[in-house]
Amino acid sequence: MFRDIVTDVFFDLDHTLWDFEKNSELTFQKILAENNVGVELPDFLEIYIPTNLAFWKLYREERITKSELRYQRLKTVFDTLKYPISDETINLLSEEYIAHLSNYNHLFPNTTEVLEYLKPKYNLHIITNGFQEIQEKKLRNAHICDYFAHIINSEMAGVKKPNPIIFQLALQKANVSPQKALMIGDSLEADILGAKAVGLHTLHFNVHNEPQHEFCEMINDLREIKSFL
């Protein structure tokens, strides 16, 4: 479908290549136990996962700061669970979460296989809203850094997806026109609609089991990328 027109493929990282939920669960399993926080991990994650997505949306929209994101997502979970915990402990957990998260390196199934397939044929890049120091460490520790020519993050761009500026910066760095570029990501709002607004082709990795939409094709397994490229 895109074989004859696309030269550059841009990937989101978290929830697209890097299995954020699995790595996040392992991180919380470690830090909650080490800090003697007496909550059941499944109960914690049931609230944390949607809460984290909601706070990331606020962060994308410039309605909260990085520090507020990191504190409030945990504070909200403990408040919902009615678990008494000090601000000091929440701040400690927040720091330890960031420190340990990128030590876990689970990728989505078929990530490496697909990158190996694409690398000889296309220029590959990352566009991520994640924090620069963390995202680069994730890529290195997961041994996929070398697949990508450019890694564009929101701190570098000064804005977050879906803001057009971050996509324009990515196109500029890759020296490619939007008509020859494809964006693959999990977020309809940030990745798909953001990229389409700038003129990129898009492919939606439906990791969140969202309903079908008319904006672009959807895939449920990264291996399906091979049928488009």
From TrEMBL:
SUPFAM superfamilies (UniProt xref): HAD-like
**GO function terms (MF aspect):** 5'-nucleotidase activity
| First and last residue of the signal peptide | none
- Source organism, top-level taxon: Bacteria
UniProt xrefs under InterPro entries? HAD-like_sf, HAD-SF_hydro_IA, HAD-SF_hydro_IA_YjjG/PynA, HAD_sf, PGP-like_dom2, Pyrimidine_5'-ntase_YjjG
Protein name as catalogued: Noncanonical pyrimidine nucleotidase, YjjG family
Q: Which organism is it from?
A: Ulvibacterium marinum
